């Protein structure tokens, strides 16, 4: 029987420690924030064991951090990432007073605004992002053109985007501007593939001009301005977990 220590990929070890989701752990590694046994590791696929000394930004992996949960109103023109190799503004620029290593749950496009959850709880983040849990997200979308209900019905039926069949969405047309040939649509989905909302409307022939996420499960942006954030309340965390388990 072998006594060889169990190996796992570095990004998985970071995610399992609750430091970041696996995807954000990969970003941290690529940006040079992670050391293993004193040496910076920036390549993917490196395997580690429990005996390895792993640090993220100089903090040992096994050092417990208090779990933090924030609701953030992301402005337009901000990257939903921990770091950016092009030096662009990221969501982390708004949390300089938070000492814990938080990161965004999922993403909002650079040119989109709205509700984003920030945390350092890996299990909580993975629960919300996993498509099987079906936590709904509500968007307000400004599109070029004024679609009829028949043109919007494929959203409800489930579009095929990037050769993937999407789950049915709900929609409601809020307003239309005939002079500018634009419309405002409210869209509710629970999936989260890259650029999903933009791709959905492009598929039915109505490109997105402006996009904002106004609700995530029971959470809304009431009382916040772009760039503001607040801690999530205990009852809000419980409500999100209940929704995820129900899904």
TrEMBL record:
Keywords attached to this entry: Isomerase, RNA-binding
Transmembrane segments: none
Protein name stated in the entry: Pseudouridine synthase
Organism: Lacticaseibacillus jixianensis
The family this protein is said to belong to: Belongs to the pseudouridine synthase RsuA family.
InterPro entries: PsdUridine_s_RsuA/RluB/E/F_cat, PsdUridine_synth_cat_dom_sf, PsdUridine_synth_RsuA/RluA, PsdUridine_synth_RsuA/RluB/E/F, PsdUridine_synth_RsuA/RluB_CS, RsuA_PseudoU_synthase, S4_RNA-bd, S4_RNA-bd_sf
Top EC class, one word: isomerase
EC number: 5.4.99.-
GO molecular function terms noted in the UniProt entry: isomerase activity
NCBIfam families: pseudouridine synthase
């Amino acid at each position: 029987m072998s006594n060889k220590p169990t190996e796992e990929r570095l990004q998985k070890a970071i995610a399992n420690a609750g430091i970041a989701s696996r995807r954000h752990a990969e970003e941290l590694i690529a940006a040079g924030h992670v050391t293993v046994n004193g040496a910076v590791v920036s390549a993917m696929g490196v395997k580690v064991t429990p005996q390895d000394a792993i640090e993220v930004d100089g903090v040992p992996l096994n050092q417990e951090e208090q779990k933090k949960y924030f609701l953030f109103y992301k402005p337009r023109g901000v990257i939903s990432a921990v770091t950016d190799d092009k030096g662009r503004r990221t969501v982390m620029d708004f949390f300089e007073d938070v000492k814990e290593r938080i990161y965004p749950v999922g993403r909002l496009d650079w040119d989109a605004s709205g509700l984003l959850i920030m945390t350092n709880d890996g299990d909580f983040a993975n629960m919300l992002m996993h498509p099987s849990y079906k936590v709904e997200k509500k968007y307000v979308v400004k599109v070029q053109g004024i679609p009829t209900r028949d043109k919007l019905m494929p959203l409800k039926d489930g579009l095929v985007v990037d050769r993937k069949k999407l789950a049915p969405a709900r929609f409601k047309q809020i307003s239309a501007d005939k002079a500018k040939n634009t419309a405002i649509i409210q869209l509710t989905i629970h999936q989260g593939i890259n650029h999903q909302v933009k791709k959905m409307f492009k598929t039915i022939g109505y490109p997105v001009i402006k996009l904002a996420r106004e609700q995530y499960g029971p959470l809304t942006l009431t009382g916040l301005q772009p760039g503001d954030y607040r801690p999530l309340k205990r009852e809000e965390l419980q409500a999100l977990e209940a929704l995820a388990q129900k899904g």
